[in-house]
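Lab notebook page, bench 4
Experiment: in silico fold of construct C2
Operator: M.H.
Input chain length: 158 residues
Purpose: comparison with the prior construct
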Amino acid sequence: MIDLLRAIANWFSDLLENTRDLFLDFAHDFKKGGRPFRMKVAMVGSYVAICLATVVVFVPPGELNEIDAEVVESVSSLIGGRYFRVINRSDETWHDVVLVINGEYYTSWPRIRPGEKRAFYLSSFRSKRGKRASQQLAVRTLRIECKQGAFERRYGPR
């Protein structure tokens, strides 16, 4: 066991030393390299920085999706107004489905089968007091709960 720990420690030590040597060699090449080399390094560095910034800025925060739900918010100009299109992408039928907006407005459906698409119009959501959700409601969170699990998405400020 001690030999294994020593081997792991030596491996990490070698890894750190090799990494340090790599950076020192790169710094030496950068100092001795001419303008074309420095321009190439700047272009590669800029590309990496743009890629990292894109991932940080545009990747949404993680969402709870235990039930393999796909949800799209949309607007129908002909009937109903704003709605959420919910698709069951799992292999299981969801039973006793409840959708909750902002923890206040609820609507339910008995079951959604695998692959089934269902539109839930904002006008079908009601508060516990029976008040209908407004078409201008700023949706901050949408939660889907059923016996098989839950889905939750947070939306940014509107």
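Observations: Residues 2-58 form one domain. The helical segments are 2-32, 35-58.
Next step: discuss at group meeting.
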